Amino acid sequence: MPEGPSIVILKEAVQQFSGQKIIDVSGNSSIDILRLKKKTIREFKTWGKHFLICFDDFTVKIHMLMFGTYRINERKETVPRLRLVFADGEINFYTCSIKILEGDINLHYDWEEDVMNEKWNPEKAKKSLDKIPKQMICDALLEQNIFSGVGNIIKNEVLYRCKIHPESRVGKIPKKDIESLIDESVVYSFQFLDWKKNYELKKHWLAHTKKTCVRCKLPLVKKYTGTKKRRSFFCTNCQKLHQ
Asked: Where does the secretion signal sit in this chain (predicted)?
């Protein structure tokens, strides 16, 4: 599943079509895609893992799910979920979820929850974590209404950097470590963005999919943790378990 930084890259890649009119639309989406024809795109936005195509009185929300892809000014052989054709190019979306959000987009999203948005509010994240003291931090970091845009890669790398065991209970983690986690979720997300643009993301991974702790030289544990049962990679020696 693409994480927040990858969706920001998509937003940047399609800026050539901002302000342009859609001259044709097709695809196998269940939404009323013909509603988009002849409409002018006002702007592209992102909220975490959601890609948003904003029009005057509604917005198309695209979620890439686990295996969604897109093509700009080129096509795959398969039928797209949505194809937008402009006077000088096109965008094609495949294997994704598409919905229409009516009215003002600001009524649908809290931009303070998006770790890559300029309105991101770390204090809001702290207050949200305070409400779920018994939840494992590996689950909490993936809560999109707290850390919108954070996915499993970012989760694993941030926990490793902060030396916190993924199965630690939120309420047992010291305040200073919670603050470090919140700050690092933003720092790493923007580093992820830069590395992804330069096609070098994987070479910077310290924990995700790795087998050995670079600090302790001991084997990393791979385990499906928390209620979300997502893969965690961690060191039981240097990542402290707070219970």
From this structure: none
CATH class of the 4-107 domain in this structure? alpha beta
pLDDT digits (tens, 9 = 90+) for 68-113: 999 999 999 999 999 999 999 999 999 999 999 999 999 999 999 9
Report CA dihedral (182, 186, 189, 193) to the nearest 10 degrees.
Answer: 180
Cα separation, 121 vs 114, in Å, equals 8
Domain ranges of the chain: 4-107, 111-234
DSSP for 172-196?
Answer: GS-HHHHHHHHHHHHHHHHHHHHHH
Q: What mean pLDDT do residues 64-69 have? A: 90
**Rounded to an integer, what distance in angstroms lies between the CA atom of residue 222 and that of residue 71?**
34
Whether the CB-CB separation of 115 and 185 falls below 8 Å is answered with: yes
Q: Identify whether the C-beta of residue 141 lies closer than 8 Å to the C-beta of residue 159.
A: yes
Q: CB–CB of 73/90 below 8 Å?
A: yes
Distance CA 145, CA 135 (A): 15
* 111-234: in CATH 1.10.8.50: yes
Report pLDDT digits (tens) over 135-185: 999 999 999 999 999 999 999 999 999 999 999 999 999 999 999 999 999
